[in-house]
Structure formats: structure tokens, C-alpha cells
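Dear colleague,

Thank you for sharing your sequence with our group. We've completed the structure prediction you requested, and as agreed, I am returning the results in plain text so they can be pasted directly into your records. Please verify that the sequence below matches your submission; if there's any discrepancy, let me know and we will rerun it promptly.
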Amino acid sequence: MVKLLNWFTTFSLRRLFTWPATFNLKKLFTWLDKRLLEIGIIILSIFIPLYPKLPLIDIPHTWVYVRAEDFLVALVVGIWLIQLARRKVSLATPLTFPIFAYWLVGGISLLYAIFVLRPHLANFFPNVAVLHYLRRIEYMILFFIAASTIKDLRIVKKYIFFIALTFFGVCLYGFGQKFLGFPAFLTMNEEFAKGIPLYLPPTARMTSTFAGHYDLAAYLVLMIAFFGSLIFGFKNWLVKILIFFLAFLGFILLLFTASRISFAVYLMAISFMLFLQKKKWLIIPVVLASLFLMNYLTGASERFGKTLRVEQVVYDVRTGKPIAAVEEFPSLKEEELPLGTGFLALPIIETTPPEATNVAMIRKSLRTATTSSEIATISGEFLIKRTLVYDISFTTRFQAEWPRALQAFKRNPLIGTGYSSISLATDNDYLRALGETGLLGFVSFFGILGVFGLLVRQGLKRIASPFTRSILIGTTAGLLGLMLNAILIDVFEASKVAYGFWILLGITVGLVQLIFPKRRSLIKEAIEVIKSPLTTIVGLSFVAPLVFWSTFKNYFVGDDFTWLRWAVTSRFSDIPKFFIASQGFFYRPLAKIYFLLAHSFFDLRPYGYHVVDVLFHLGCAIGVYLIILLITKKKFVSSLASLLFLIHPINAESVLWISSTSHLFASFFYLWGFVSYIKWRTTDGKWKYLFLTLTILAFILGLASQEKMLTFPLAILLYDLIFYQFKVVSYLPFWILAIVYLWLRNLVAQAHVLSGDYSYNFKNLVFNFAGNLVGYLGELIASYHFIPVYDWSRVFLRAHKIIALAVLILVALVIGKLLKRVKFREWWVHKEFRLIVFSLGWFVILLLPFLGLGNIAERYLHTAQLGFFLVIALLINWIFERLKKRNLWLGLVVAFVIVGSIVGFYLWETEKVKQDWYQAGEITNKILLALPSNYIEFPSDSGLYFVNLPLRQNRAWIFPVGLKDGLWFIYRDDSLRIYQMSDLEETLDLVEDKPVTHTHVFLYEDGELKEVSRK
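Please find the predicted C-alpha cells below.
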């Protein structure tokens, strides 16, 4: 109890500052010399959060002002600089170098923006840019001041006391604002920022002493996580209760802010804190209690309910685009999707067909399908649907702020376009960093936080003190909260939050330095982290959206409309039929279920479908990483192979073509099923049969996705023969399921069979097998550059079967000769040799169903690539290991050059093929929209002939099939007869011989669709 009084109830300045017992001038100056910075940090910790953001000096071209805290900070910084010059304090911290690196990159970006980019940037003002740059230095320099004052544990405890006192004051003012009418001082617009006191109604979102409810909520998450952790740092129950009460007050105030993102972040931060504190059993009760309180506090649950809400929305049935909410529609004016309105279609749950009616007459200028232009009046047919609508705070980010930041990043990817160049707010600190300071600024800023994470990781391994551990864990959990908040808020630029965060970070780092002045090198710590599987998975998760982000806007092509039409005309009650009736389609029951569900949310907006495909491709890359890691135990090999798998350009057809989603599903379940199988083989104990169950489940789901899953029993047999042992009983469940699948697919469902070039020709089976094997291998090595070689070789060898046979015999003899020289028994003991055999076996087994076909398709390569990249990664690793024995740096340089060259080549090729798929979507969209621009409707049973429609844009599909289904979405007329033709004269002859009156011939020429006829 005495300790408690000494800590939290006494306000004796003598206890807090060890005031000199007797006063004289020399002792006073000596005391001030020792304590002035300490007092400065305490004053800043109290003043900045509690003092409102009242303006002092106006800055032209912005409503950001110089305020009182800026002068106070400048005073403390001046004192610190004097002490630094006197060598009374030091800059030496683990974060010094990354902070200085960030300041350097920021300075370069600022100068480049002012002297080079300024003429090309709209609304860019150098004085504002300099202010933004200096503000960031101002925030971060408090880290050095706070860290340099930590001389003993007493100072840390003193700081925590005043931070707690300030936190309590913020909470009291917030409650006073809600219940007693205390004024708010906001900076949410130019008028508010002038310091006008505002009196908020009780139903408003509370801001306390902060400039906005988002800033307050972010601060509260940081403090709740910090003090929540401190509960476990004390043994005294009265202290625990006081700290819990303080954190609980902060939580209630968080609910009064009604900040949805911060509440969700609070749940994650507090769960992370409990996990680090080894109190996992508390996570579920705390989350449930938090949700319960949120639900019963006014102003919180209501706002959460508005995040996504159902409304009646009017859609144009021709384009599938939302026009407006029902109450907005009587204006009779066609609207684009307005800023601040986002739509996700929900399933229509009703027994009668949805209402479709001519509700407006719209007059607009249209390009006709002939060679001229005219003004056409059309009657728009619209569909009223129940729709999930998300509100303005989200769509403002999606439609305005984030694209602006991305555009700035694309303009100058390395150092960005300078501070303040993308407006005052971006509402995403990550995109803001990329847009303003480019990749260098992004890496250097978040590198600071990464180095802190390494320090905490090292500290938690060695620190036993509950108090010190709780400070480290609380700061780390609070930092996680800020980083998650930064996804939707510019939290690191919010001054009150930023000041408090950098002070707290300085206290924590200073404490670690105090306890462990001689620490292990953080470089070694970083190497361990880099080698961890989690780091690779996080890295892949970062690379995937970075590579494929631009493809999310790609429009549908060909076959996509076939899937979408099928989804529109199906109901959820039809799901059982998917497994027993193919309806003339491929056997893809799982893909059908997916499209049925996905269409309910994404409707005719391709963005969502592309995101799902990229996520599954990422999941496949992670599966590749885990398989190779489990087999090789080599982290570099598995990381490199999975990266190459993720970015190889040959994956474009699998990832960018929505119609190939079923192949992605099969790849995903194949790879993760194989991971589970390896774990089953290598795990003992209670988890063993869980992995077997997951393997069987993955096999079933893979079979429901695509036929290549039939090779799975051969792949696990290959694994057992090479790395484990052969047991017949292990494969029985898979063979039984495979037989059941074939029975369902071929006899019950009567699925669509292979045809054309994508079918088996037993007369040419051997030639196709060898040619396709070479073709797929060549595509992996040389990307799309090999395809012309493959096409020419196939045409030539088909015309010269004798030469083809001679080449096959010669290759077989060479392979046989080489195999005779291989000493299998001697080499088999070397794991690298067995890995090579496994890689080759995997490559052939996964391609086995497709090698006999009459042509190749890149999507069939998706899963088989694992074998190829495993060999490449092993080869690079072998070169590195050999060179490392001579000289470590030589090995590193050579490995870096090889890997960099391969990755650079793949990324370059991927960018080109991404552009092809984008153009393919644009061509598809243009062709489809050309018809409704000129033909409101066609008479029933009309015949539409399309001549010379493009099949591909290089290797990107346009209209191999799917035209009929695409036009169905425009006209919804099943009687239309649609034909794709290749010869115009032949088509015109055919039309003249047809008895049908209503026929139209459309020719695609010079990028335009034109109607043609014989005069």
C-alpha cells in the first residue's frame, strides 16, 4: 500500500523530481541540468493531448496552423540539442539509423518535388510541402529526447504515471463533452480549424480534446492496449484494479467515438496483447464483452449498422451498372456511380421475377454500328434489386483518395511526388507513404517500426520482469493498433497521436537500452526473422497485390459471360443438382457454387472476381512454399521457388482469366492437400489423423473443381516412394473417391467431354505427349517468347511425320544412354538427387492429363510449375553454396545477380501480358456495348452474324466463345440466334439463302463493329 501511495496518490514534487532539500543557485542549476529534459517530456505528455488544437500562426494554402505545442516542442528540442552538444545525452539508439534514413529520403523527395515536379503538380505549394516534412521531423525527434532521458527505472515509472493521468483527463473531458456540454475544437474543415468552439449534441461522435473522432479513437486504441498490458505488470491488486478502470474508461470513450475501424482494430490489438502476455484464455471473453457493450451503447452499434446496409437500387440491365438508389432515380437523368456511393448486389429473395420496367427516357449521343454517328433516343430497361450499400467514408477512399495516391506512386515509384502533393488526407498511411515518398520512403519509414519489432522480439526472449515485459508488449500491441488503423486513417500524421506515439516509443526503447546495454546484434535477429516461414508468407502477401493490383479493373472476356449467365439463371436450391447434372457443361460443381455466390455480391463488376483469383493464386504460392520447405528443409530454396511461382508471366491465363477460376481452385486444393499429406506422414500424436482428414477433404474439393485432381494419388505415391515408404492401404481412400468421381462425372452427370485440339488423338498420342512436354518446359524457361517456336515446330513436324519420328527416336536413345550412366544406387543416398527426381516426377504427373492433347494451354501448367521452380531454386542454391566456400560476398553477389535477373525478366514479361489482358477486356466491352447503342431490341428469332471477331489479344482471350452469353445480358432474349463467322462473303451468301427476315451481319474491322449488307 505504501508503494501504491508513493506511485499514484502523491503529488509531491519532491518525490516526483527529487527536489533539492536546501536551495541555492548552484544546486538549482545542477538539478535543472539533470531534470529539465525529463520535465519537458512530462509537460509535453500532458499538454499535447489535453490542450485543444487552437491556431496561432496561419500557413498559406492550407488550414494547418502553427500551434502552441509547436513552440513548446521547439523549446524542449532546443534544450535537448544543447545537452547533445555538451554530450550529456546521446543519439545512440537502435532506431537512429532508420530514422535518419527516412529523413534523408524525405528530404530528397521534397527537393525533387520542389525543383523538378512542381510545374507538373496541381495544387502543390512548396511552403506546405516543407511544413509537412518538418512536422514529421518534429514528431520523431521526441523519440530521441524521451529515449535519452531514461537513466533508471524510476524515470520510466514517473512517465507512465503522467501518461496515465493525461489519459484519464482525456477520458474525463470526453465524458464531459457527451454529458455536460464541453466544447469541441475540430480541424475537419477550414472553418472548424480556426479554433471555433463547437457544442456537440449527445448523439454526436465524441472527440474530447482531439481534432476529430478518428484521431481520438486511434489514440484510445494505443492507450488501451498499453495500459491493458500494464495490468499484468503489477502484483498489487489495487494497482491492477486502478489500471483496469482507466483502460475501461478509455474503452467506453472509444465506443462514444463510434469509429468502426478503430473498434475493430481495438479487438485485434487487445487480442494480440493477451496472446503475447500468454493469457490466450482471456481473448474470447474480452472480445465477447466488448461486443456486448458496443451493442448496448448509443451511437456505436447504429453507426456500425450503417457500414453495410441493404437498399433498393436501380440497375441498367444492359450494362449491369448501378444507376442510383430508388429515391434518387425520379430525376430521369442517367448517372455515373457517384462519389460516395458503392454497391454490392445481394441475391434477390422472392418468389416472383424481379421487377423490370421502362422507368426513364434517356437522350444521349451514341456511336452507331454503321460508319456514321447520330443522336438516338433509347428507352432504358432497368431492374430494381435489393443491394448491399457501403457508405461515403469507405467509397470516398476507394474512388478518390486511394486512386490519387496510386497515381502519384506510378508517376515516380522510387521517391514519390513529395509531401502534401496528394492533398491533405489520403486515409491510408501506406498508400500515402508510397505516393508522397515512393518505395524508398515507404521502406525507410516502416523499416523504423520493423527495427523496433526486432528489438521487442529480442527483449521478450531475455526479459523476465513482468513490469518491463508489460511495457514492451503494451507498446507493441498499441503499435499494431496504429498500423491497422493506418489502413483507413492517416494516423501517423495526426499530431496528437504522433507526438504521443513517438514519446512512448522513446520510453520503451530507452528502457530496453537501460536493461540490456549490450544486446545481441539486431542484424542476427533480422536474419532469423527473415528466415521464418511467417516472413515469407507476409512477403508473398505483399508482392501479390503489388504485381496484380492493376489487373483488378480488367473487364470480362469471352467465356466469363458463360459462367455469369449460368450463375444468373441458377438458384441456391439448384446446388444439389450441380453434382449430378452438368447440363452440357464441364463437371465443375464447386466452381458453379462459387459463381452463384460471387455473382450475388459482385454482379457484373469484374473487380471482385479478380480479387478472389489473385487471393487463390497467392494461396497456391504459399502452398508451394510449404511443400518445398517440408521436403527440403531449405528456407532459401522454398522462398525463392514460391516467389518465382507467384510472379511467372505464364500464370496470366490462370489468374487474369475469370473463367479459369476452377483451375485455380483445383491448384489450391491440390497443393494444400499435399501439405496436409506430408504433415500426416511426418507427424505423430493426436494431430496425425486431422491432417489425413484434411488431405481427403482437399482431394474431394479438388475433384469438384477440375479433373487434374485425379493425378493426386500418383503425386502422393511419388512422395512416398522417394521420401517415405510404400503402403498400399494409404492410397485406397483416394482411389475409391476417384472411381466415385468418374462414375458421377461421366455416367451420372454426363459432363462435357474434350473436343477439337483440346482432346486426345490416339494416333498422334506419342507425338503430342513429347511435343507438349517440350512446349510446357519451353514456356517456363522463355515465357511467351517460346510460343512462336512451339507453333512453328508443331506445324512443321505434323507435316513431316517421318522427321518427327526420327527426332523422337534420337531423343529416346540419348536419354537412354544418359540413364545408363546414372548410378542410381550411389546417387540415391544424396537428398538433392532425390529432390531432382521428385521435381521431374511432379512435373510430368501434374501434366499427365494434358500432355496427350492436341495443343497446349498455359492454365494447365499452374500446379506443375512447382517441380520446375524447385529445380531452379536448388540449382541457384548449389551455385551459392559452392561460391560461398571461396568467398561469402562473391556467392552473395552472384546469387543476387542471378535471382534479380530472373525476377526482373518475369516481372517485365508479366507487365506486358497484363496489358494484353486489359486490352482484351476493353475490346470485349467495346464490342458488346456497340449493339445496345444502336439497337434497343431485336425482333424475336433474329439471326445475328458476327464476322472476324478477334479470338485473342496476343495470348489473352477475347471471344473464343461466350458472345451469345454476353449479348444475353444486354437483351435477355433466348430466341436470338448468334453466330461467329470467319469469312464475310461466305456469311453474306449464307444470309441471303436464309428464309429468316430479321438478320444482321456485323463485321469487326479496324477496331470497330460495323453492320454490313449487300446493296
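Summary note from our side: Residues 7-16, 326-388 have pLDDT under 50 and may be disordered.

Kind regards,
the structure core
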